[in-house]
Task: inverse folding
DNA sequence: CTGGACACGC
DNA sequence: GACGTACGTGTCCAGG
C-alpha cells in the first residue's frame, strides 16, 4: 500500500478556526475556540484520511528570507490578537498528545516546509494531502499532491487535484504563482500589478500562459490602460512572483520517514480534552470525563430512624429524582446537610415519617436546594407541599452566568472551586445505560450534592449581591420557581377525543395529498425527506434551483413559495408539509404526553435556559401551539378547562417590547404614541415613509410592522430583507429611516453598545445580565451579532422580567381574593388561566390590573383579554 | 445516537 | 468586502 502523508498548515488552520468559532472560553477562563476548531479538524482528518505519516508546519518568528527581497513583506498586517496567540501553545500540546510531528524553522514559513516535504514525498511516489486556508499552496497540486482548502469556517472544504484546479480557475498549478504575481495578495502585502485583480489576471494567463510571456508580448495585450499598468509595474510583478513562489529546498533537520503516524495516545488525549473542557470531542473519541480531584471522604450517616436532631433549619436538601421528566416520577432518595451533620435518608423511610413530612411542609424550616421546582413538583405528586425553600442553586447560577450551557451541580461547584461532587452522568450513566447505582455510591453522591449546596449558598448570594442581582433572585426568580411548580403540577386538561378525531381527518387528507403528489411527480417517494424531495423537484421535474443547503437543494417554504406558479405539485407539497406538521407534532405529539388517568398535560418550564430571561417549555412545548393559520389554530380547541362550567381565560400584553423600548430609550415620539394609544405600526409607517395617517397603505404598514419586529428581535438588514422580501439595501434604508424618526431609539442603540463594550455585558431593568465577550471581537460577524444582541436583550429581557413579576403578583392576588382560578400557562407575553364561570367578572378586573401595574414605566402597559370554553375560544 | 433541515410560536 | 445573521422545541431523515 502507498504511504499517505498529511501536511497541515498550522498557522492558517488555527487562524481559520479562531475566526470561524465564537470566542469561547472554558471554565478556567482560558480562550479555547481556535484550539477546539483545530482539534475538531484534526480528528476529522485522521478519521477521513487514515494517514501513515503526518506533519503540522508552523511559521517561525516574524522575519523570513522573503523580507530580504521585500522589506514590506506581510507589512501592514494586523498583529495576531492576543486571544489567538495565547492558544498556540495549547495547540502544540494537543499535537503532542496526538503524537503528531510538528515543525517550524527559522526564516521560513509553513508554506516552505510543506512545499519541501511534499516534494520529497511526491518523488517517492507517496500520496500527499495538504490542509490549509491559503490559496498559495495550490501551486503544489499534482497527481500525487492534493490540496484541501477551507472554504468558509473549518468544516467546509474543497479538495484540489489538477483537474479540479483547472475546472475552477482554468489554470495549471504553476500558473497559480503567475496569477498571484499579477494580482498580488493584500493579506501578505504583495503588490502585484495595481489595478489587476483575479478576473484580469485569469484573462491574461488564459491568453499568454505565464507572467513572463505576458511581458514578452506586451503589444498583444488589449486595453491601453492595462498595457500601461503592466509596463510600469513589470519589476514589481516579477518580485511578487518571487515572493509567492514556495521554496522547496528548506533546510530540514528531519526526513519524511521521521513523520510516521500510528495513532494517538488515547489516554493522553482524553485527559487533555477533559482539562480543556472539550466534552463533545471527549465523547467523540469515546472517553469519559476525568473528574477533578475530590475531597477524599465525606462522612455521613445513613438514617434508620428519623429524629428531630436531623431536621434543623437551615438544611441543604437533595430530593433525588433521576428521571429527566420529574412529573409523577420516582424519588430515589433524600439527603440533608446541616449544622448537626450529613445524612442520607432512604425515600420510604422519609415519606412514611410524619416528623419528616412536617419538616418538609413547615415554611419556617429553611431549605437550600438544587432545582427547587424539581423537588416541589416531585413531592407535590405525592401530596406533600414542600415549603420554606429560600435558596435554589440552579437559579443563582443561571442569573450569575446565563450563558453557561449546563447548570449541573458538579459543573457549578467546580466553577466555584469546590470539587466536591461528581456529575450525575458519571454516577448514573446516560441514555439507555442510565441506572441507579449501588446504594453506597448513590448515598455518597447525594450527600455530596447537599454538601455542595450547603457550601455554595453563601458564596453565590455574595456574588448576586455584588452584581446587584440579589433582589432579582430573592424577590422574583425564587418566588416564580414555586409559582411555575404549581402551574406544572396542576397541568392543562386536554380533549383527547377531539385530538383523535382531528388526527383521523388529517390522516385522510394527507393520504389524498400524497397520492396527488405521487401522480404529479410520476414517482413515489418520501415527501418528508428533503433529500428525496429535492431530487424529485430539481432533477426529475427540473424546477429552477433557488437556494442550496450544505447537503443539497433547499426545499424550505420560502423556496417553494417562489416556485408555486411553476408547477402544480408545489402547493400540494406545501399543504402536505403544513398538515403533516400539525399531525405529527401537535396531534400525535400531544396525545403521547397526556396522562391517561387525568386527561391532563404537564409541561415543564425551564427557568434557567434562555439568554434573554424568557422561559422555555418542554415535554410538550406549550409555547408554540399554532395560532397563525386557522387549520393549526384549531388545535387550541383541544385545550379545555379541567372542571365543568369552567372557562379558559387568556390575557396578553399589547406591544410590550415596544413599550419597554419607548421607556428605556426615553424616545419622545414613541412615548407619545403609546400615551395616546395609537396604532404603533401605522405610526411607524407615518414616520418612516413620511406620510399622513390617511395615506398609510397596507403595504407600508406591513413593512413598518416588520421593521418594528426587527427592532424588537434585533435582526439585521439582511434578516429584515428576508422577512419582507426587499433588497438588503432597501431594508437597511428602512432601518435608517426608522432610527431618524425615533432619535431617542437611535441614541439608546448607540449608548447601549458603547456601554456593553465597556462593561462586557448588558442589563435589563431588573438587573438581569447577558455577557457579550464578542462585542470587542475583530470578527465582523461576531461583533455585529454581539452588537445587535446588546441592543435587543435589554428590551426582550425587561419584557420577560415584567411578565414574571406579573405572574408572582398574580398568584398572590388570586390567593388573597380567595379565588379558585388557576394560572396554567405563560407564553412570553400572555398568561392563560382556567376559571369558574362566576369568577370571570372579577378576573376581567384584576388580571389587567395586576399585569398592567406589575412595573411602572413612562408609558402605560396595556393588556387585552378574552375567554371561552376552550383555549381556541379565548382569542 | 447525532446533526441537519424544516416548521411552529413569540 | 468579509460573513451569516432573534430565541426557543420537536419531528423527521440519514448517516455512522
Result:
Amino acid at each position: 500500500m502507498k504511504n499517505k502523508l498529511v501536511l497541515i498548515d498550522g498557522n492558517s488552520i488555527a487562524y481559520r478556526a479562531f475566526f470561524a468559532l465564537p470566542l469561547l472560553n472554558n471554565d478556567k477562563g482560558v480562550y479555547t475556540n481556535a484550539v477546539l476548531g483545530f482539534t475538531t479538524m484534526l480528528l476529522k482528518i485522521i478519521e477521513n484520511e487514515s494517514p501513515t505519516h503526518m506533519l503540522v508546519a508552523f511559521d517561525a518568528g516574524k522575519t523570513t528570507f522573503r523580507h530580504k527581497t521585500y522589506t514590506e513583506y506581510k507589512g501592514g498586517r494586523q498583529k495576531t490578537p492576543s486571544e489567538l496567540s495565547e492558544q498556540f501553545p495549547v495547540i502544540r500540546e494537543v499535537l503532542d498528545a496526538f503524537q503528531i510531528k510538528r515543525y517550524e524553522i527559522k526564516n521560513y514559513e509553513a508554506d516552505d516546509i510543506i512545499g519541501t516535504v511534499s516534494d520529497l514525498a511526491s518523488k517517492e511516489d507517496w500520496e500527499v494531502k495538504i490542509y490549509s486556508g491559503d490559496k498559495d499552496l495550490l501551486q503544489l497540486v499534482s497527481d500525487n499532491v492534493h490540496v484541501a482548502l477551507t472554504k468558509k469556517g473549518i468544516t467546509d472544504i474543497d479538495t484540489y487535484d489538477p483537474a479540479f484546479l483547472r475546472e475552477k480557475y482554468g489554470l495549471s498549478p504553476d500558473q497559480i504563482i503567475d496569477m498571484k504575481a499579477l494580482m498580488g495578495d493584500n493579506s501578505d502585502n504583495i503588490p502585484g500589478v495595481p489595478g489587476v485583480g483575479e478576473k484580469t489576471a485569469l484573462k491574461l494567463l488564459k491568453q499568454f500562459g505565464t507572467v513572463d510571456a505576458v511581458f514578452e508580448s506586451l503589444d498583444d495585450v488589449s486595453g491601453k490602460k492595462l498595457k500601461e499598468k503592466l509596463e510600469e509595474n513589470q519589476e514589481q510583478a516579477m518580485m511578487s512572483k518571487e515572493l509567492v513562489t514556495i521554496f522547496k529546498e528548506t533546510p530540514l533537520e528531519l526526513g519524511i520517514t521521521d513523520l510516521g503516524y500510528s495513532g494517538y495516545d488515547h489516554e493522553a488525549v482524553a485527559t487533555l480534552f477533559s482539562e480543556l473542557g472539550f466534552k463533545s470531542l471527549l465523547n467523540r473519541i469515546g472517553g469519559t470525563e476525568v473528574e477533578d480531584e475530590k475531597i477524599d471522604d465525606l462522612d455521613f450517616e445513613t438514617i434508620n430512624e428519623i429524629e428531630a436532631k436531623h431536621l434543623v433549619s437551615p438544611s441543604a436538601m437533595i430530593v433525588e429524582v433521576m428521571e429527566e421528566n420529574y412529573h409523577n416520577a420516582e424519588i430515589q432518595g433524600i439527603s440533608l446537610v446541616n449544622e448537626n451533620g450529613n445524612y442520607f435518608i432512604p425515600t420510604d423511610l422519609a415519606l412514611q415519617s410524619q416528623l419528616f413530612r412536617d419538616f418538609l411542609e413547615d415554611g419556617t424550616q429553611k431549605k437550600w436546594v438544587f432545582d427547587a421546582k424539581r423537588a416541589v413538583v416531585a413531592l407535590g405528586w405525592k401530596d406533600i407541599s414542600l415549603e420554606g425553600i429560600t435558596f435554589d442553586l440552579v437559579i443563582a447560577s443561571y442569573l450569575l452566568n446565563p450563558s453557561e450551557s449546563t447548570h449541573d451541580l458538579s459543573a457549578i461547584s467546580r466553577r466555584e472551586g469546590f470539587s466536591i461532587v461528581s456529575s450525575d452522568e458519571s454516577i448514573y450513566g446516560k441514555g439507555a445505560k442510565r441506572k441507579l447505582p449501588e446504594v453506597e455510591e448513590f448515598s455518597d453522591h447525594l450527600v455530596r450534592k447537599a454538601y455542595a449546596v450547603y457550601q455554595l449558598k453563601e458564596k453565590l448570594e455574595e456574588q448576586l449581591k455584588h452584581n446587584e442581582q440579589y433582589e432579582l433572585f430573592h424577590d422574583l426568580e425564587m418566588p416564580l420557581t414555586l409559582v411555575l411548580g404549581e402551574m406544572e403540577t396542576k397541568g392543562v386538561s386536554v380533549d383527547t377525543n377531539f385530538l383523535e378525531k382531528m388526527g383521523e381527518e388529517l390522516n385522510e387528507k394527507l393520504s389524498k395529498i400524497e397520492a396527488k403528489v405521487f401522480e404529479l411527480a410520476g414517482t413515489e417517494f418520501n415527501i418528508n425527506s428533503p433529500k428525496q424531495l429535492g431530487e424529485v423537484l430539481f432533477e426529475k421535474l427540473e424546477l429552477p434551483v433557488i437556494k442550496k443547503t450544505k447537503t443539497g437543494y433547499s426545499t424550505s417554504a420560502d423556496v417553494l413559495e417562489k416556485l408555486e406558479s411553476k408547477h402544480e405539485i408545489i402547493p400540494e407539497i406545501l399543504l402536505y408539509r403544513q398538515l403533516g406538521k400539525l399531525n405529527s407534532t401537535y396531534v400525535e405529539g400531544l396525545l403521547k404526553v397526556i396522562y391517561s388517568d387525568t386527561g391532563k398535560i404537564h409541561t415543564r418550564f425551564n427557568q434557567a435556559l434562555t439568554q434573554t430571561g424568557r422561559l422555555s417549555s418542554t415535554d410538550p412545548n406549550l409555547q408554540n401551539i399554532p395560532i397563525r393559520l386557522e387549520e393549526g389554530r384549531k388545535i387550541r380547541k383541544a385545550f379545555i378547562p379541567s372542571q365543568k362550567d369552567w372557562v379558559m381565560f387568556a390575557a396578553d400584553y399589547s406591544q410590550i417590547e415596544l413599550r419597554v423600548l419607548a421607556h428605556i430609550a426615553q424616545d419622545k415620539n414613541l412615548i407619545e404614541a403609546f400615551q395616546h394609544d395609537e396604532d404603533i405600526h401605522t405610526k411607524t409607517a407615518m414616520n418612516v415613509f413620511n406620510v399622513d395617517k390617511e395615506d398609510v397603505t397596507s403595504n407600508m404598514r406591513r413593512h413598518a410592522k416588520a421593521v418594528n419586529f426587527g427592532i424588537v428581535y434585533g435582526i439585521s438588514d439582511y434578516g429584515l430583507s428576508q422577512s419582507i422580501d426587499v433588497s438588503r439595501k432597501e431594508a437597511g434604508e428602512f432601518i435608517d429611516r426608522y432610527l431618524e424618526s425615533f432619535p431617542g431609539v437611535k441614541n439608546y442603540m448607540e449608548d447601549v453598545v458603547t456601554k456593553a463594550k465597556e462593561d462586557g455585558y448588558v442589563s435589563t431593568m431588573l438587573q438581569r445580565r447577558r455577557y457579550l465577550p464578542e462585542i470587542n471581537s475583530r470578527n465582523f460577524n461576531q461583533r455585529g451579532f454581539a452588537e445587535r444582541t446588546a441592543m435587543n436583550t435589554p428590551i426582550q429581557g425587561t419584557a420577560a422580567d415584567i411578565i414574571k413579576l406579573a405572574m408572582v403578583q398574580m398568584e398572590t392576588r388570586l390567593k388573597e381574593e380567595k379565588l379558585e382560578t388557576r394560572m396554567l400557562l405563560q407564553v412570553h407575553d400572555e398568561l392563560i388561566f382556567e376559571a369558574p364561570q362566576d369568577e370571570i367578572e372579577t378576573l376581567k378586573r384584576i388580571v389587567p390590573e395586576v399585569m398592567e401595574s406589575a412595573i411602572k414605566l413612562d408609558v402605560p402597559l396595556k393588556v387585552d383579554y378574552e375567554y371561552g370554553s376552550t383555549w381556541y375560544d379565548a382569542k
User: Anything to note?
Assistant: The radius of gyration of chain A is 33 Å. The first strand of chain A starts at residue 4 and ends at 9. DSSP finds 36 helices and 26 strands in chain A. Residues 150 and 157 of chain A are 4 Å apart (CA to CA).
